[in-house]
Amino acid sequence: MNAPQKPENLNAPHTNAAWHQRRLDATPRGVGVMGDFFIDRAKNAEFWDIEGRRFIDFAGGIAVLNTGHVHPKVQAAIAAQLQRFTHSCYQVVPYAEYVALAERINAIVPIEGKVKTAFFSTGAEAIENAVKIARSSTGRSGVIAFGGAFHGRSMFSVALTGKVQPYKAGFGPFPPEIYHVPFPCHCSSLADTQKAMEQVFKCDIEPSRVAAIVFEPVQGEGGFNPIQPAAVKWLRALCDQHGILLIADEVQTGFARTGKMFAMEHYGVSPDLMTMAKSMAGGTTLSAVSGKAAIMDGPAPGGLGGTYAGNPLAIAASHAVLDVMAEEKLPERAQLLGERLVAHLNGAKARYPRIGDVRGLGAMVACEFIDPATGAPDADTTKKVQTAALKRGLLLLTCGVYGNVIRYLFPLTIEDSVFAEALGVLDAAMAEVLA
């Protein structure tokens, strides 16, 4: 065995190109990386790479930074906790902050009746534990999800995911008794979904063996597709009819992104279980499952948890995030910024026929690019707009089953001047590619 090598000094002068090559040599290609530059420091909606170039961040670490990079209150909360203790494993030596955060979450989630919450580390963990809870509580095994969904990359959560490339290709076979139906949004009717669900119940699994139906109120990776309000009510009625639990995956939609603390508040329907992660802890690793108390108590002691689940630093960060959300009125801010962005994109749509649907809920906004002659998805143009924006210092993300959607995930704390600057950069990028 070779002796471990002393790492080079990270503070020594290096270029992005040098680190890019070191990344290729040291890490596997399966960890896909969009940028060929490396972040050095960040503040709110801006960051700088190791060569000093400035970027406006409209990606937010994939919806993790609703409170921005290094929010001073979140930073202070982590620093204070760092002085006290960093780990005990909650299941061995509990800490009051975990319980207090569960109480705060229980009080705000849109779930009827008495609620309980358990904490984990990632969104995929939250989804898998929600399914475990549903199976334990109901004594059933089947799970139904939707085409275009994204629920994570772990083996069970990726089986629930409804997008093959790049998440599922080459990784099968997947766990059994998972079924998919079309997602009822702007591109698929509720009638199509109802017909497919009936087919699943007739041909694949009887309703009495289905533990849960899992859905995103707004699909993330699938293309920022808001579910039809009538579909949420139908799902609730269907679950009630057959004793199935309804799980709302709010990993990406939660914590003010859609103009409400949680997207389910837009629909007036109470799920049985909810998953959350991403922006709940300001960039630290924390996720949660909240649900009706009787359901959450289904698993026996020891059935839930994890060595790092509910890490003290992340718990402290999440308390600070909840304070910031209230003090800075971030749900209202999300609604305002989302309306501005939608109006701006609709103005661009009037100029450029390659812009197709503009959609969103609050500040969870997206626009798609199409071939104007056929209406077919145009992933090539989408990539060109993303690249042109990046060249000008604006970081954007794409999504959608066909890769033809740009999604906008700026911090909700973004300054008005930086937001306006970003829209100007976006205009320039679109003009270069679409004019």
Automatic annotation (TrEMBL):
Coiled-coil segments on the chain, per record? none
- So what EC number does this one have? 2.6.1.19
Give the matching Pfam families: Aminotran_3
Superkingdom of origin organism: Bacteria
Q: Which GO terms describe its molecular function?
A: 4-aminobutyrate:2-oxoglutarate transaminase activity; identical protein binding; pyridoxal phosphate binding
Give the protein's recorded name: 4-aminobutyrate--2-oxoglutarate transaminase
Q: Which cofactor does it need?
A: pyridoxal 5'-phosphate
Q: What biological-process terms (Gene Ontology) are attached?
A: gamma-aminobutyric acid metabolic process
Question: Which InterPro entries does the protein's record reference?
Answer: 4NH2But_aminotransferase_bac, Aminotrans_3, Aminotrans_3_PPA_site, Class-III_PLP-dep_AT, PyrdxlP-dep_Trfase, PyrdxlP-dep_Trfase_major, PyrdxlP-dep_Trfase_small
Family listed: Belongs to the class-III pyridoxal-phosphate-dependent aminotransferase family.
